[in-house]
């Protein structure tokens, strides 16, 4: 897990993308069950054949989980990494769940459709700086949802000024070791985090959701520094991303 000098700390079209499945299973508490939780929450809020937007399709586990349990769901997975798209496409083909699901290489802003009945965004926003990029992503998602549509957000988060953050981060680091990550791997992963993760507190996440056009947001999951929130696209018309 070495990052070449000058490379992005989280290069999803490079070595990090190739190792992503192993890393995610090792460092994210409840990684596999998080998709089943999302399925359980969404299934109670959508009809039998909804169009669902999956932001950050990654290696395709989320898409396969959804389509295996709910074959009638029509899925659109979007990811800016070509390597992730190819891995997801292969996984979906092997699972036999390609019908009614499409993969888009690009960003949410590139999508040419809206009116989705639900959306998810797992392990994406913490890679974006809070300089307008986080807000822009959430606003782009909201614009593509039908009014009242549910939205699930799952993120690494935390208030670095809080004394509890240090304790949770230390426990999270020990979690990597418990899951078998060696000392050199842990040091390399810590270096990636220090350089490439853009932390936001839960209060800030809730604020960003509200400003992007979501309402009734509440946390349904917490494990160390990971959290899951469910909200819904507001019923009233959305403001522009600039707030005007």
Quick structural summary:
The protein has 244 residues and is an alpha/beta fold. 41% of the residues lie in helices and 19% in strands.
Can you give a write-up of this model?
This protein is α/β, with parallel strands linked by helices and 244 residues long. The protein has a single domain (15-233), classed as Vaccinia Virus protein VP39 (Rossmann fold), CATH 3.40.50.150. It has helices at residues 15-27, 31-43, 61-69, 82-95, 133-143, 163-178, 183-196, 202-212, and strands spanning 51-55, 74-79, 101-105, 118-122, 150-156, 214-223, 226-233. Strands 3-2-1-4-5-7-6 form a 7-stranded mixed beta sheet, sandwiched between helices. Helix 2 packs across helix 3, helix 3 packs parallel to helix 4 (82-95) and helix 5 (133-143) crosses helix 8 (202-212). It is globular. Mean pLDDT is 93; it is low at 1-6.
Task: Quickly count the helices.
Answer: 8
User: What does the radius of gyration come to?
Assistant: 17 Å
Order of helices and strands: HHEHEHEEHEHHHEE
Tell me the CATH architecture.
Answer: 3-Layer(aba) Sandwich
Shape: globular
Strand content: 15-25%
Structural class: alpha/beta
Helix content: 40-55%
Distance between the termini: 44 Å
Strands of the widest sheet, in order across it, are 3-2-1-4-5-7-6
CATH homologous superfamily designation: Vaccinia Virus protein VP39
Taken together, the total number of domains comes to 1
CATH topology: Rossmann fold
Mean pLDDT: 93
Please give the largest β-sheet: 7 strands, mixed
Instruction: Flag low-confidence runs.
Output: 1-6
CATH class type: Alpha Beta
Number of strands: 7
């Amino acid at each position: 897990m070495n990052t070449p000098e000058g490379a992005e700390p989280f290069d999803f079209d490079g070595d990090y993308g190739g190792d992503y499945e192993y890393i995610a299973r090792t460092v994210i508490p409840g990684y596999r069950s998080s998709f089943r939780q999302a399925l359980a929450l969404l299934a109670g809020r959508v009809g039998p054949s909804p169009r669902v937007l999956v932001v950050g399709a990654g290696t395709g586990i989320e898409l396969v989980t959804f389509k295996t349990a709910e074959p009638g769901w029509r899925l659109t997975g979007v990811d800016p990494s070509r390597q992730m798209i190819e891995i997801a496409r292969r996984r979906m083909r092997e699972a036999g769940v390609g019908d009614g699901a499409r993969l888009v290489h690009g960003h949410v802003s590139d999508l040419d459709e809206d009116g989705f009945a639900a959306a998810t965004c797992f392990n994406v926003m913490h890679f974006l700086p809070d300089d307008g990029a986080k807000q822009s992503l959430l606003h782009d998602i909201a614009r593509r949802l039908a009014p009242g549509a549910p939205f699930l957000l799952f993120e690494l988060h935390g208030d670095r000024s809080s004394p509890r953050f240090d304790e949770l981060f230390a426990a999270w680091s020990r979690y990597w070791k418990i899951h078998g990550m060696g000392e050199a791997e842990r040091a390399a992963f810590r270096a990636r985090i220090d350089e490439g993760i853009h932390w936001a507190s839960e209060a800030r996440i809730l604020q960003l959701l509200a400003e992007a056009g979501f309402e009734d947001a509440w946390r349904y999951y917490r494990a160390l520094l990971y959290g899951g929130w469910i909200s819904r696209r507001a019923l009233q018309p959305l403001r522009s991303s600039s707030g005007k």
